Amino acid sequence: MESTGTGGGAGVEDPQITSAGDGFGWAAVHAPLCGTVSAVDREWEVRAGGWEVDCDYAMEVSEPVHGGEGLPEDAAPERVRFLAGYSGSGGATRLVDDTVACAVFRRDPDGTIESRTWFLSPCQPSAVVGEAEPGDVAFEEVEFEPRTLIDYHAVT
């Protein structure tokens, strides 16, 4: 091992992975900050949390999925599909490039609309594993891996 410097901080650029411990799966302890997107009434930091995701791809996925107040259903239709079978009144899940699932969910801390907030769920590796009825792509069966590829943190 060759030392290249002393007395300064160490820069960590690659994702550092650990078990999330909250039942979600594996997540990054440190992941590079790639930029921000505006979604559900606030700004969110976008972080590339998987070895196979660099910042360019993290932003490329995040902007059409979460950029702006709600995603028009026709935004990037060649890359982004709404998954009706994994969505409902409490959230919406979208499949990007047939390999990454990203979602937005609501929280109602005291059960009232006044307390409602929305949060961006981490994007996970995903794959279509079951066929839908012909012409009904929204209800395909999708398998989600318990790893984080892209993570979001609300900017306070």
Description of the structure:
By secondary structure, this protein is mainly beta. Helices cover 8% and strands 40% of the residues. The chain is built from one helix and ten strands. A five-stranded antiparallel sheet has the order 5-6-7-8-9, covered by helices on one side. The protein is globular and about 60 Å long. It starts with 15 loop residues before the first strand and ends with a strand. The relative contact order is 0.21. Mean pLDDT is 76; it is low at 20-24 and 68-74.
How many helices?
A: 1
The major sheet is characterized as: 5 strands, antiparallel
Radius of gyration: 17 Å
Distance between the termini: 41 Å
SSE order, as H and E?
Answer: EEEEHEEEEEE
Task: Describe the secondary structure blueprint for this structure.
Layout: E1 16-19, E2 26-30, E3 33-39, E4 42-48, H1 55-66, E5 80-82, E6 91-96, E7 100-107, E8 117-130, E9 141-144, E10 150-154
Antiparallel strand pairs: 1-2, 3-4, 4-10, 5-6, 6-7, 7-8, 8-9
Key traits:
156 residues; mainly beta; five-stranded antiparallel β-sheet; globular; three-stranded antiparallel β-sheet; 1 helix
Quick overview:
This protein has 156 residues and is mainly beta. Helices cover 8% and strands 40% of the residues. The chain has a five-stranded antiparallel beta sheet, with helices on one face. The chain has a three-stranded antiparallel beta sheet with strand order 3-4-10, covered by helices on one side.
